[in-house]
Design goal:
Elements (H helix, E strand, L loop, with lengths): L10 H12 L8 E6 L18 E7 L2 E7 L8 E2 L4 E6 L2 E10 L7 E5 L5 E6 L5 E7 L4 E4 L11 E3 L4 H15 L3 E8 L5
């Protein structure tokens, strides 16, 4: 499920939400604010859902402001046999992301964005949605193209495939034109618009 429209939060609302999440930290020049459960009352059940694009992503930089539909959850909760652990869900927080290859060791890999060598904190989620444990480390949490019939996530952040080419071009062009190697990813629990 993809919403019929892109998120409509204004730049001032997004910047205020980012400032609140950052606390005493300075406002980064380039950041992506991701709002988990942005569409909490208009898609799925009330609150956060998995397997649908009910979240939002906002790119803020000196070159402009854009909004995108997104997913910030694994496609399902429960045991992940590929990892030998419960599914990962990125914990709200402030992270450093960079341009990198998603599925780097696979012939189907492609350029996307992700944590690289910088640690992130994930919550390992049981099938019933409760947190089994919290871990900090390098888990390959990326920001990449989602699926047509699902969100294609084992813990990564995804953008609907119809929006991915423009999202990828926009963010990679900002990094190239500003000569930035990284950007700040801010994940919050939404919604930022009451």
């Amino acid at each position: 499920m993809i919403p019929p429209n892109k998120p409509r939060a204004s730049l001032s609302i997004v910047v205020n939400a980012a400032a609140k999440a950052l606390g005493e930290r300075p406002m980064p020049e380039i950041f992506v604010l991701m709002d988990r459960a942005y569409y909490d009352r208009t898609m799925g059940k009330p609150g956060n859902d998995v397997g649908i694009y009910d979240d939002a992503a906002f790119i803020v930089s000196p070159l402009g402001f854009t909004s995108w539909n997104a997913n910030t959850d694994p496609s399902r909760y429960g045991w992940n046999p590929n990892a030998g652990k419960y599914m990962a869900r990125l914990k709200p927080g402030i992270y450093t992301f960079r341009r990198l290859k998603h599925r780097a060791s696979s012939p189907s890999g492609y350029m996307a964005f992700g944590q690289g060598p910088d640690p992130v904190t994930v919550e390992r989620i049981r099938r019933d949605g409760t947190i089994a444990e919290t871990e900090t480390g390098c888990f390959g949490i990326n920001l990449h193209r989602g699926g047509v019939n699902g969100t294609s996530s084992e813990g990564c952040l995804t953008i609907p495939p119809v929006q991915w080419p423009a999202f990828d071009h926009t963010l990679s062009d900002i990094l190239k034109r500003t000569e930035a190697k990284t950007f700040t990813l801010i994940l919050i629990d939404g919604p930022i618009i009451p």
